[in-house]
Amino acid sequence: KWRTTIQMEMPNMPVKMPPFTYEACVTEEDLKDPQKSVPNDPKNPCKVTDYKISGNTVTWTMDCPKTKTKGEGELTFTDTTFDGAVQMTIGEQTVTSKYLGKYLGACEK
Fold it and tell me: Model pTM greater than 0.85?
């Protein structure tokens, strides 16, 4: 079970958006499927490509045709934490989402 906090940053925004935190269980099966192992919004499904693992760092690119959005991400893991960012481009607007994660323990069954 992981707790993830996301802080979005958008250039020229007059007010900083508040961070969003959620908890989720990640299974071994999830880790085998790049579509499940990177942040993804079910309301706006994105196709993950160029998924790579190098040491403790995961990188990928994304294409979200429903919103004509493209982006890339990178997360670096330790045994109990992760951090990284996803940068998405919508038209000429770029949104950066910074991720911080903390391992909370085994998932409840």
Answer: no
